[in-house]
Amino acid sequence: MTRSEASLFEELLGQAKQALDGVAESPDGDPQYYADRIDTSRELGSPRREIDSYFKKGQAIDATYASLYVAMARCLQARWGGSSAEFPTFAQEAARAGGEGMYARVAYLGAAMEGRRFKSTYPSFEWPRLRLALEGLLEKYPASGLFWNLLAWFGCHYGDGATAKRAMDKLQPPNDKTSFDIWSWKTKNFTQCKDWAQSGAKPDELPPLGRAVTPTAPVQPRMGVQ
Questions:
Q1: Residue of 42, 30, 115 whose CA lies nearest to 74
Q2: How large is the greatest C-alpha to C-alpha distance in the chain, in angstroms?
Q3: Number of domains in the chain
Q4: Is residue 30 situated within a structural domain?
């Protein structure tokens, strides 16, 4: 980011904060208001207690609102002031409050930042639980390319060839923004994972995926959209 870009970003952040400050509470009971407050407060370096208060207020409106958990999870990542223990713990808390799908959504955010370092950065994430959470989301949204691609990627990441193959059998090579984002805009990442899963190779023979998930992949604001 150049100096002028940084200056513009700070200016836009200030404008966002000013707009949000003009409304004392969510005007229409919309939890997105508090998700926006969390995001803005994080970028401005606001105290954690302030961010926590926004999260609790948003939860009180809708405990299943995905974007609220994603916004809070961003604050808890190891790279942004959280820790390798706090982030997975939040995923468990999110699942208890908003359903098991939240466990997968928080893990997705961590993988978006860490890529192939996800497992080593957050070793307490449990692959069996993550797999079940993704499969649960796919039961609700069987046509979701996002969740099928994530199941394939995480299957390869954790060396679960059977799960990766099952997901890969549902997929074509990346052909839209969502699938390209999952595989870091590199078709070879997808192909390597698919070849490994279909070959019956051992987990220790898993090809390097590189930075296979990028932070730009969209997270839908409500579970029912995706």
A1: 42
A2: 58
A3: 1
A4: yes
- Give this prediction's pTM: 0.77
Number of neighbours of residue 73 by Cβ within 10 angstroms: 24
* Residue 91: partners with Cβ closer than 8 Å, 6 or more residues away: 73, 102, 103, 106, 107, 125
* Angular region, 45: left φ>0, alpha ψ -120 to 50, beta rest: left
List, for residues 45-74, the tens digit of each pLDDT value: 888 999 999 999 999 999 889 899 999 999
**Residue 199 falls within a domain, yes or no?**
no
At position 133, the amino acid (one-letter code) is A
4 burial class (0-12, 13-18, 19+ CB within 10 angstroms)?
exposed
21 within domain boundaries? yes
Q: What is the pLDDT of residues 73-126, one digit of tens each?
A: 999 998 777 889 999 999 999 999 889 999 999 999 898 888 888 999 999 999
Measured distance CA(71)–CA(75) in Å, rounded: 7
Q: Round to whole Å and give the CA distance between 157 and 132.
A: 15
Element (H, E) at 113: helix 101-114
**Tokens 């070793």 sit at which residue?**
123
Q: What is the pLDDT of residues 126-145, one digit of tens each?
A: 999 999 999 999 999 999 99
Which domain, by its residues, includes 35? 7-76
Q: Is residue 157 part of a domain?
A: no
Contact partners, residue 114, CB within 8 Å, separation at least 6: 78, 79, 121, 122
Here the tokens at position 172 are 């074509």
